[in-house]
Amino acid sequence: MAERTLHGTGATPRSGVGTVVWYGRDISLPDPDDVEVDPETERRRFADAVDTARAELESEREATAERVGEDEAAVFDAHIQFLEDPTIEDAVETMIADGGPAPNAVDAVFGEHIEQFEGMDGRMAERADDLRDVRDRLLRLLTDGERVGLGDLPAGSVVLAERLTPSDTAQLDTERVAGFATVTGGRTSHAAIFARSLALPAVVGIGTDLDTLEDGAEVVVDGDNGTLLVSPDDSERAAAANESGAAVVNDSVKTTDGRHVEVAANIGQPAELEPAAKRGADGVGLYRTEFLFLDRETPPSEDEQYEAIRQALDTFPDGRVVVRTLDIGGDKRIPYLDLPDEENPFLGERGIRRSLAPDSDLFATQLRALLRAAADGAGDLAIMFPLVATIEELDAALDALEAAAGLDDYDAVDPEVGVMIETPSAAFMADELAARVDFLSIGTNDLTQYVMAADRENERVGDLHDPTHPGVLRAIQQTVTAAHAEDIWVGMCGEMAGDPDLTELLVGLGLDELSMSAVTIPEVKTAVSETSYSSASERGDRAQLAATRSEVHTTLDT
Fold this sequence. Notes:
This protein has 558 residues and is an alpha/beta fold. The chain contains 22 helices and 17 strands. The strands form 2 sheets. An 8-stranded mixed β-sheet has the order 1-8-7-3-4-5-6-2. The model has no long low-confidence stretch (mean pLDDT 87).
């Protein structure tokens, strides 16, 4: 048995065994009293560091998009925005003009902004980590500091850190790194999302107990149970080293008593299509179209969008591809669209709200591209509208789709049309929504955040951002009931769908489709095939009637 076990949040249902390598940043700043400062020289040094940092970020963004996906790579856009923020730049140059060395000015100015963001609520608090990443990058360049080569670690390394930023995680070489663990972070933090995309064992949010471990210690990272085993015994070490995950199942799956459940993939860019197919995905349950609009100066043309969707349909000729229309706003920034600065962007102008107003022309172009692909593609295309909160929004979106069909003579094209259930309003109005569409798909990441009033990136309310809270389960159950009353299918495309430990619960709640990151498709398919729908239904009924989260978990464990 292991010497001791540290507990955190599992990010990926994978285990790995290896040797601890601590990752941190020890940057020494010059003593202003010991250096003679030439303001013009320091200003040029700062400008050169900004230029180099920008080039690094752009390069890392491109590499991350290719390796992991556009959704994950988009965080580098925020880093570039902070790097080019005129408020920060002016403050640094003012301190330099007053005689401060460039590194000290960067440290002081960024430190003030980091402190401000840490004092905010919700998603804005997450920006503190982005600022730290930019600050430390500039300080490394200004002090000629060494950057730990996370891509060149010894084989079998387990990286431990207080936190891992997106640029840190993007460096990890999965051939050498056996896993990682962090003091801070939650299941939907940047590091956790990258870990799932890379199928890398990871446990986040362990807390300060992690600080007690030293370089060279042997550990097992159990991303399934959310534990770090210190000094594991031979059996624990062997179990982790030999873990290969569930076998890939290429056929569709049914419960033991014959209920079919579709298991699909969430896709963020074309490069993820083939890997998802190889992991046994039945189709695509969430195709995020934002990647087409990122990392460019102008919106994509109708032809570009058409070709991208055709590729997805051709990859799954016997399956269904659910395409979500453009969902920007919140933390998804596209500079050329001139998005507003909002105090709380997640409660602001995003998703369908933009498509029906400032981005209506882009919306019309995208709908035409989707209809063309539906007419020509081999697979079945479905169109899904994001962040619908009112019946009026859905009716307006359906009118826009009808107008696009009539304008380009696609009246005969009849793709399935659905709505994402992400807001409490949509869950409450699910019966009315279901009467107008062909399917509903539950986005549990946002639904949980809005139902529980808990920012999914804010560690202070991490316990509340759990989809197994009774309030969230009842919203899910209400949605399923409304969909089935109208004889339409209902799916789920949030992180909850990809958790094999919750598959029985979701089957029992009546979900017809589960869509997830490709890494967990084999495990979920196996879980479906081992589940009895009748017994799962009874457990699902008890779970959604529970009064507390602990009662829910007791129901799931018995």
